[in-house]
Amino acid sequence: MLYKIYRYLNLVHALLHKSVSASLGPLNIEEDFVDKLGLLTENEAEVLLPTDNKERDAVIAWLGAEIATYLRMDGVDFEYANQEISASLRELRGLCATHHAAFNPW
User: Fold this and answer.
1) 41: Cβ–Cβ under 8 A, 6 or more apart, which residues?
2) What angle do CA 39, 22, 15 make, to 5 degrees?
3) How many CA atoms lie within 13 A of 49 on its CB side?
4) Is 103's pLDDT higher than 80?
5) C-beta neighbour count of 48 within 10 angstroms
């Protein structure tokens, strides 16, 4: 489970830079992000493809769900932790959008 959280965090990072990176730009989700980078399973890629330009937001949502599952299993006070995690994920989403807008002004 922790590896999946780690993988999703790296996936958000790769998707963030995909539109501005010479090395990530040409890679495609259904093959390269699965086989070359190992950031997605084939099933995850199938689910992610229809999200079009909202891939990063979808992965952030997956990340939140995975963290929530982990916290429940670990016996953490979920109500408190969920508020903090939700706030952090909102901030991450906002920072990603700001970064994206800085490089893609259209």
Assistant:
1) 34
2) 35
3) 13
4) no
5) 21
